Amino acid sequence: MGNSTGSTVDDLQAVEMHLWYKKFMTECPSGQLTLHEFKQFFGLRGLDPEANAYIEQMFRTFDMNKDGYIDFMEYVAALSLVMRGKMEHKLRWYFRLYDVDGNGCIDRHELLNIIKAIRAINGSDAQDLTAEEFTNRVFDRIDVNGDGELSLEEFVEGARSDDDFMEVMVKSLDLTHIVAMIHNRRHSI
């Protein structure tokens, strides 16, 4: 009986992977997604400068081999991490995404721009705190050594202990609409 359950899970994963592949190849017949195609693929058009910069950073983070394209394996690895990965791995990935200049820490300016971008993309401007206030609050709470930069360790531990910050990160990569789009198109492909 255990085998039939495992088989069912494997079958579901195989079906889902096949759907992702069909979607990817339908939208990107070359098998390599450019930044422009990435924005179209995820329905991201007419973004303000902060949101556009965030999407470009997300693209660069998904492009693991840094060749300027996202191939199917990079696409699946990113979706799998975001949707099913362990929290520790997700937090490390978020850190890489938020560390725009790649210097190994996140400064206030980087976090502020990310928060603004997330709000612009999600259409959530009506918040209790402005993006600046939220950024300051995050730094007040999780910048343990007070140097104005978040190290990987501060970021991971802080995210685990600050529910508001964790919620923002989860929303920043909420791909449920992507999964829904893939499943909705399954019959049309």
TrEMBL record:
| Cited CDD domains | EFh
UniProt-listed InterPro entries: EF-hand-dom_pair (IPR011992), EF_Hand_1_Ca_BS (IPR018247), EF_hand_dom (IPR002048), Recoverin (IPR028846)
| SUPFAM superfamilies xref list | EF-hand (SSF47473)
**Which keywords accompany this UniProt record?**
Calcium, Lipoprotein, Metal-binding, Myristate, Repeat
Q: Which GO terms describe its cellular component?
A: photoreceptor outer segment
MF GO annotations: calcium ion binding
On whether Nucleus is a keyword of this UniProt record, the answer is: no
Please state what the protein is called. Answer: EF-hand domain-containing protein
Organism field: Pygocentrus nattereri
